[in-house]
Amino acid sequence: MTTDSLSNLMDERRTFAPDSGFAAAANVDAGWYTAADADREGFWAAQARRLSWESEWSSVLDWSDAPVAKWFVGGRLNVAYNCVDRHVEAGLGDRVAIHWEGESGDGRTITYADLLREVSKTANALVSLGLRAGDRVAIQLPMIPEAIYAMLACARLGLVHSVVFGGFSPTALRSRVDDAQARLLITSDGQFRRGNAAPMKANTDEAIAGCASIEHVLVVRRTGSTVEWTEGRDVWWHDLVDGQSDTHTPEAFDAEHPLFILYTSGTTGNPKGILHTSGGYLTQVAYTHHAVFDLKPETDVYWCTADIGWVTGHSYIVYGPLANGATQVVYEGTPDSPHQGRHFEIIQKYGVSIYYTAPTLIRTFMKWGDEIPAGYDLSSLRLLGSVGEPINPEAWMWYREHLGGQRCPIVDTWWQTETGAIMISPLPGVTSTKPGSAQRPLPGVGARVVDDAGVEVGPGGGGYLVLDKPWPSMLRGIWGDEERFRSTYWSRFDGFYFAGDGAKYDADGDIWLLGRVDDVMNVSGHRISTTEVESALVSHPSVAEAAVVGATDATTGQGIVAFVILRGGQDAEVASQLRDHVAKEIGPIAKPRQVLVVPELPKTRSGKIMRRLLRDIAENRAVGDTTTLADSSVMALISSGLNPAE
Ligand code: 6R9
Questions:
Q1: Which residue, judged by its Cα, is nearest atom 7 of ligand 1?
Q2: Average pLDDT, stretch 511-520?
Q3: ipTM
Q4: Count of CB atoms within 10 A of residue 446's CB?
Q5: Using 50, 70 and 90 to split pLDDT, how confident is the model at 321?
Q6: Sign of torsion, CA 362 366 367 370?
Q7: Beta bridge partners of 413
Q8: CB-ligand 1 contact for 265 (6 Å cutoff)
């Protein structure tokens, strides 16, 4: 069999049993599934005891007001104390918490003792601005340590942070600030992108012009560029924070005290402010970070490449790793600045042992060439993770070979902003992994694949992914819109959380995610996942990356339109070859109507392809709102390179 024919989800059969040495030392074993099934609440109570509580809960779960859960009812804790102080109190103050690597190679080493001082100073500064528990604080910052200090200072004081991507437009920031009625905005003068200083405060100034809720803007100096200044409103971080006392006594809050709001886009209209609370959230991020990444805090160097403006940054840069006392790398820059080996250079420099990234970056590495990772010593790596979208088997295999040296287990972690923490993933050392499958709900988590009527499908069957039991880090609502919370997630199936993802079971009952159901195409009555077609395309040797959309078609309902980035130069014959290749891999029904060769794909800052924009092109419409694109010039680049007659 050729690699090609193995490389789409329909045929994927490879499995990789855990290495016995890894399994022997793993943090978890198969008994965790049985224990959690036997006594779910007892299991979660045991996980909650990873944390330090000022007073324990009276009951583990109150689901009487479903779908709004209360976890660890009556328990009290301070989230920042758990992420910082307790490690210092345990004598680990000299352990490095953060190896911060600036884009240009400037760096800072921050120990847990340093982190405690910085977070305390920041908390004292926020108190001096008159902020009180429950107030909202908007944060738009680059990937600099102050972003983490700011989030933890909010957590310490019971302030609710709302982190907004550095790349979001003023309009997007404004709607988030307004929706949450934030009193404070924390930002920086500018940010470095590919060696250039780009303005940030100019954008935030524009965003909050005339905004009544914002009383102060706290500004970190990062690039040193000149900024406009509003006296009485704007305060420099170094003026306010640096002079504060570096001690601060944390106060415990209720387990259900709000911790943060994070906006995520829905299928329609305004972004949704997903609300997370304290005790359950921290419990599940700490547990999953321990179990899924097999973290050994004394020896591992962990690196999650997400941006803190994304939920992965919240849960697996800030709260999970720090609650577990991890040593981690935080990197400010882009993967190709100043060169395409930057990530591998950082892995080598710090001896990174656990690396967690997104399939889109893995495919980008593939496009750049195998020789780039081969030029670095990556032998410190012992576990690799993937998140954000389905990982096609081809990318999974490449990741395993070229970063993992065929030895590292890969954890494909499925979860969402709404779930707060990882829900479905292999357990390293326990699960025999399969390229492209997230496999099983974690111990303590309930998930199934159901049909239109909410009935679970059998082995080999496909349908919708639902979560059938409440979990500690579940969203507690959409900020200010309880009705939308119920209708979006809880009305589609009675008693189940509707995730919005398509999935199927294989013959072993393992779960394969097939992409958003809004991305599932219907061609002549056949349901075809964009992911399946993309996976087939990427299995062709000349394709580096592919995105597929269903475009309205008068005859078949929808027609499949594929956008591909080629590995080498342009090839006039390739479009028809690729159409045939997909037909061969999946079946004639999946043959794309059109294959368009493009230089780039439109992506959000978190690496998700914006299919909506590609659909606009495929359906010959004016391209819609591009404000959430990482690089808004991409659409012009794509359109200019296309032959309209194709
Ligand atoms: C963490 C995060 C959530 C959506 C989710 C799904 C997709 C995430 C995935 C995955 C397949 C995985 N997704 N991880 N699909 N396999 N391992 O990405 O949160 O930005 O809210 O996106 O991402 O479609 O519904 P968020």
A1: 389
A2: 80
A3: 1.00
A4: 18
A5: very high
A6: positive
A7: 387
A8: no
Q: Which pLDDT tens digit goes with each residue over 632-643?
A: 778 887 877 664
Q: Supply 386's token pair.
A: 């993937």
Of 513, 529, 530, 611, the residue with max ligand 1 atoms within 8 A of its CB, to mutate for a pocket test, comes to 513
Residue 516 near ligand 1, beta carbon < 6 Å: yes
End-to-end CA distance of the chain: 34
| Per-residue pLDDT tens over the stretch 178-235 | 999 999 999 999 999 888 999 999 999 999 999 999 999 999 999 999 999 999 999 9
Q: How far apart are CA 616 and CA 596, in angstroms?
A: 14
Rounded distance between C-alpha atoms, residue 84 and residue 79, angstroms: 9
Sheet of 136-139, strand order? 234-236, 216-220, 184-188, 136-139, 160-163, 258-264, 272-277, 477-478
Half-sphere exposure of 190 (CA within 13 A, CB side): 14
Check: CB of residue 214 under 8 Å from CB of residue 185.
Answer: yes
* Ligand 1 contact, 356 CB (< 6 A): no
- CB of residue 519 inside a 6 A radius of ligand 1: no
Mutate to test the pocket of ligand 1, among 316, 501, 520, 628 (most ligand atoms within 8 A of CB): 501
Whole-number pLDDT of residue 552 = 82
Tell me what pLDDT residue 2 has: 30
Local structure of 303: helix, strand or coil:
strand
Residue whose CA lies nearest to ligand 1 atom number 4: 416
Name the band, by pLDDT with cuts 50, 70 and 90, for residue 504: very high
Q: Are 279 and 287 in contact (CB under 8 A)?
A: no
Percent of the chain with pLDDT over 70: 94
Instruction: Please check the confidence at residue 240 and state whether its pLDDT lies above 50.
Output: yes
**What is the radius of gyration, based on Cα positions, of the chain?**
24
What percent of the chain clears pLDDT 90, i.e. is strictly above it?
Answer: 76
Place of tokens 């309880």: 482
For ligand 1, whether the C-beta of 390 sits within 6 Å is: yes
Residue 513 Cβ inside 6 Å of ligand 1? The answer reads yes
Show the tokens assigned to 29.
């074993």
What separation in Å is there between the alpha carbon of 153 and the centre of ligand 1? 28
pLDDT at 553: 79
DSSP category for residue 120: H
396-441 per-position pLDDT tens digit: 999 999 999 999 999 999 999 999 999 999 999 999 999 999 999 9
pLDDT at 569: 66
Digit-coded pLDDT (tens) for 247-256 = 999 999 999 9
The alpha carbon of residue 78 and the mean position of all alpha carbons in its chain are separated, in whole angstroms, by 24
- CB of residue 413 inside a 6 A radius of ligand 1: yes
Could you list the residues known to form a binding site, using ranges. Answer: 193-196, 312, 388-390, 412-417, 501, 516, 524, 527, 538, 540, 543
For residue 138, how far is its CA from the centre of ligand 1 (angstroms)?
24
pLDDT at 265: 64
Q: Indicate which atom in ligand 1 lies nearest the CA of residue 418.
A: 21
Task: Supply 554's token pair.
Answer: 């008068």
Distance 391 CA to ligand 1 centre (A): 10
Q: Counting atoms of ligand 1 from 1, which one is nearest the CA of 386? A: 17
